[in-house]
Amino acid sequence: MGARRIAVVSAGLSNPSTTRLLADRMTQAVLTELASRDVEASVDVFELRDHAHDITNNLLTGFAPPALESAINAVVSSDAIIAVTPIFSTSYSGLFKSFIDVLDPDALKGTPVLLGANAGTARHSLAIDYAIRPLFTYLHADPVPTGVFAASADWGASADGVAPLGDRIARGARELADAIIRRDPAGGPDPFDPATYLGEGRSFGHLLGGLSGE
Question: Which residue range or ranges hold the NADPH-dependent FMN reductase-like domain (predicted)?
Answer without folding.
Answer: 5-155
